[in-house]
Amino acid sequence: MAPSNNVLHALSTRLPGKGFRGARFAVAACAYVGLWIILYEAAHLFDIAHSASAWYPGPGLTIAFCAVYGPRYFPAVILGAFLYENTFTYLDVASGLRHVIVYGSAGLVLRHLIAPTFPLQTKDHVSVFLSVACISTLASAVLAGAIFQPYWTNSTFTDILVSFWIGDMAGVLLAGPVFLITFSWLATRGWTAPTGWVPLASSATGIGAVFIVVLGVVAFFIDASLGTNGKAWFVVLFPVVLLALRQGFGGAVAGIIVVNIAAVLLFKIFGRVGDPAQLQVLLVMIDIAALLIGATISEQKATEQGLRASERRQRDVAAAVHASPVGTTIVNAADSKLPFVFANDAFHLMCGYGPEDLRTIGLADLLAPDSQQCLEEILRAIGAMERTNCEVVLRTAYGAGVRDRLTVAPIADSAGGPVSYLVLHEDVAATRDRERLEREREKLVALGQLAGGVAHEINNLLHPMINLAKDAERMWDEQQDMRRHLRTIRSCGVKAADIVKKVLSFARQGSDARTAVDLGDALLSSVDLNRRSLPPTVEIETVVNAPTGCILASRTEVSQVLTNLVLNASQAMGGRGAIKIVLDLVGGPPASFGQPTTECVRDRPWFRLSVSDTGPGMSDDVRARIFEPFFTTKPLGEGTGLGLSIVYGIVKDWDGSIEVSSAPGRGATFTVHIPTTNLCANA
Q1: Is 283 helix (H, G, I), strand (E, B) or coil?
Q2: Where does a domain end: 159, 192, 225?
Q3: pLDDT of 404 over the 80 cut
Q4: Which pLDDT score is estimated for 90?
Q5: What letter does residue 367 receive in the DSSP assignment?
Q6: Are 182 and 120 in the same domain?
Q7: Strand 388-395 relative to strand 340-343: parallel, antiparallel, unpaired?
Q8: Domain count, the chain
Q9: How far is it, in rounded angstroms, from Cα 554 to Cα 513?
Q10: Which one of 107, 422, 492, 602 has the minimum C-beta count within 10 Å?
Q11: Residue 55 belongs to a domain with what CATH number?
Q12: In sequence order, what are the residues at sequence separation of 6 or more whose Cβ sits closer than 8 angstroms to the Cβ of residue 661?
């Protein structure tokens, strides 16, 4: 397990020498030694005879620690076993080595056999844990007998073996599951225990614990009165098993902890009754039985939950298929008549037959005589376990045929045989109606785009006309010459009429012939027009470096392009800033343009028109969508998002290209490349 995923590593990173193995090892050793000391002292509190504890939880701690954290922290176990109450005599050293080797190895074996993230979550996991516990405690007891028998002359080898085996086994059964759960929680981020595998602090657990204690008291006094030598404690098995049956493995863990502590406390309070060793054996048997029963119940509950979840998913799928607007059926592929196994509501509505009717007929019965060729194709596909598509005429209960486009796909069983086939039914007439409605909708959308674009362009021309008309009215009152304003108003009106003419021409599927336009002259005229319509806080600088040259276009299109670019720049600057317009001549199209069309030879000169502003600029996301129709960054009602898309369309119609370069806080520059034409001399 990666150390970054556990609490020990998280704690070690706060120590000096962050990231070094020594720091992580120090934290692991401190944590293990601290728990070892607590458990060692707790075991002595529950001594039921001289130097004989009811259970030794240390082996359970070691097995759980090594099982969860693995060999990387194994040296911490060595330190823990030798640092506390170890005089380093032969017996202490031998006992420490016995504990480290046997139970440390048992933990690593357990880690290898079951998942370390949450070791106990199946009945097989619990069986493996109990097997490892039995074998390791027996091996440890054998070694203890061999080590201590020469020194404990009052005890036989068998006495030592049984004493250590029972005490260690009881400790592993009690402490092992608890620390496996605890260390798994500490070692895993976002850990969620499977339902039923951890003890729950609930009223049912509390009632079960009280029931166990009451029967334990009864068993103790029966044992004391009748001298049954621990046999009366069998009655405690029932509440422990009942708790395991009710709450699973977590309930079993809680139950065996309560019964063991209750038994030892009764011995400590009321004195020793009978042979404690026999009672320990009985409690170990109760522990093993409860853990196995609890694991079985938890696994069964998990299986039931999985089945219920699967049933819910199946119901959801069935409901979704029934609610689908696409006719869906399942047919039995083993019968040539293809009887229906399932049909959803859409198919019932399509064919007019109810569920009872479809039980006696098959898909082959509904096909019209002229669809038999399609039936043969379906049967061939079934034999080859292939998918197929065909169009048939389906006879309905309404008395009329329905053109049905079938999509047939196999549903294989667990053995791989084609038991059933899924059939999707598409009503061809309904589909064509939907396609017709979609085309009508697209026409309306196109009409809306056209109307919006026309309104946008004419509004750009009406704006200077209105302003100049107001100014002319003032000049009339002051008896000033207003003929220049009137000429500009007339020019705007002519251009608006030209836009309307182009719209009408487009609506009639007509096309205007291109003419050679002097780009420099058209540019200066358009700049003069736009300068009058912009706020006085916007400065326009025009630089024309190109000699006289023409492009195939119209003066109205040139005005549309420049007006939209200038208006966009002014709005981006909030009506305050500087706009720079530069026109020059370059040797050819930009590298990003690709291969020009046949009319635009690469070695022909190209115009480069750039419009720059001092606005806030734009992000890469906005720049990527800037030419999309209806895309705008302006508030609702302040922009249509059509201006730049119209510019893009006009430039592409000129066989040119348009690009934008910008960055937040650095303004924006629109660069238009337009091929020149040799027709200028004839213009």
Answers
A1: helix
A2: 192
A3: yes
A4: 81
A5: B
A6: yes
A7: unpaired
A8: 4
A9: 9
A10: 602
A11: 1.10.1760
A12: 668, 669, 671
Gyration radius of the chain's alpha carbons: 45
Q: How confident is the model at residue 106 (pLDDT cuts 50, 70, 90)?
A: very high
Asked which of 192, 212, 247 is the last residue of a domain, the reply is 192
Residue 364: pLDDT above 80?
Answer: yes
Range of the domain at 258: 194-312
- Tell me: do 15 and 127 sit in the same domain: yes
DSSP string, 455-469: HHHHHHHHHHHHHHH
The Cα–Cα gap between 434 and 440 comes to 10
For the domain that residue 402 is a member of, what is the CATH number? 3.30.450.20
> What is the spatial distance between Cα 566 and Cα 283, in angstroms, rounded to a whole number?
92
Are 414 and 329 within one domain?
yes
Domain annotation covers residue 460: no
CATH label of the domain that carries residue 649: 3.30.565.10
Mean pLDDT of the chain: 79
Cα→Cα distances 388→216, 217, 232, 346, Å: 73, 76, 75, 21
Please tell me what DSSP assigns to residue 543: E
State the pTM of this model.
Answer: 0.53
Pair 235, 209 in one domain: yes
Type of residue at 388: T
Same domain, 127 and 204: no
Calpha distance 609→673 (Å, rounded): 6
pLDDT of residue 134: 92
Tell whether 31 and 164 lie within a shared domain.
Answer: yes
Q: What is the 8-class DSSP label of residue 389?
A: E
Six-digit token string for 311: 């049933």
Residue 449 included in any domain: no
pLDDT in tens, 248-270: 888 888 998 898 888 888 877 87
Q: Can you tell me whether residue 368 is helix, strand or coil?
A: coil
Backbone φ, ψ for residue 385 (5° rounding):
55, 50
**Ramachandran region of residue 88, left (φ > 0), alpha (ψ -120 to 50) or beta?**
left
Q: Which burial class, exposed, middle or buried, applies to 579 when counting CB atoms under 10 A from its CB (0-12, 13-18, 19+)?
A: buried
364 and 295, same structural domain? no
Task: Transcribe 579-643 into DSSP letters.
Answer: EEEEEEEESS--GGG-SPPTTS-TTS-EEEEEEEE-S----HHHHHHTTSTT---SPTTS--S-H
Helix 203-226 to helix 237-247 angle (10° resolution) is 160
In the chain, how long is the greatest CA-to-CA distance?
A: 137
Burial 221-254 (b: 16+ CB within 10 A, else e): eebbeeebebbbbeebbebbbbbbebbbbbbbbb
Scanning the structure block, which residue is given the tokens 């097995």?
63
Structure tokens at 675: 């091929």
Alpha-carbon distance of 177 to 188, in angstroms, equals 17
How far, in whole angstroms, is CA 475 from its chain's centroid? Answer: 69
Residue 484 lies in a domain: no
> For residue 480, is it within any domain?
no
Give 524-551 pLDDT, tens digit per residue.
888 877 776 778 888 999 998 877 788 8
pLDDT of 105 > 80? The answer is: yes
Distance CA 240, CA 286 (A): 8
Helices then strands (H, E): number in the chain?
21, 14
Q: Which residues contact 316 (CB under 8 A, 6 or more apart)?
A: none
The model's pLDDT over 208-245, given as tens digits with 9 standing for 90+, comes to: 889 999 998 998 888 888 877 778 888 888 899 898 88
For residues 569 and 644, membership in a common domain is answered with yes
- Residues in Cβ contact with 31 at an 8 Å cutoff, skipping those fewer than 6 apart: 8, 11, 76
Length of the chain: 683
**What pLDDT shows up at residue 611?**
94
